[in-house]
Amino acid sequence: MRKLAIVFLLVMVGCKRQVRGTTAPSTQPATSANANAPGAATHRDAVTRFFQAAKIQDVQAMANVWGTADRGPARSFMEPAELEMRVIYMMKCLRHDTFSIFTETPAVGDKRIFAVQVKYKNLTAMSDFTTTRGPDNRYYLELFDLEKLNVICSAS
Which side of the chain, N or C, has fewer Cβ within a 10 Å radius? Predict the structure, then answer.
């Protein structure tokens, strides 16, 4: 229970912003030449890849794009058991039929804040997702406000 509380606190931080996207299968090639490369090619791509990985429940893909400016992908610095526990909980809260990016705002330190609407069955939630530039000019989803997704997290 304590670890769950820690996960919740670490993922809860966020801010705000607009555009539209869904997680329908894409006919476009991946933004990165190597889909397994750490991070993403752009801030927006980091959010999109994170949601796509959550949709297909790919722990490794989520751990590849979730990270920090100074350390890169979470998979490179977190203990595997803790990482898996956190990512699995995030997957539950990021279940979706569609997601839409409503706004994007620059933030201090080459970060971007995205206001994202998540729709799952008859539920809708809006949360803030912050991305950052990391090592090798790759972009990572740094944090999001998990509390604002509680309606989806607690859904059956």
Answer: C
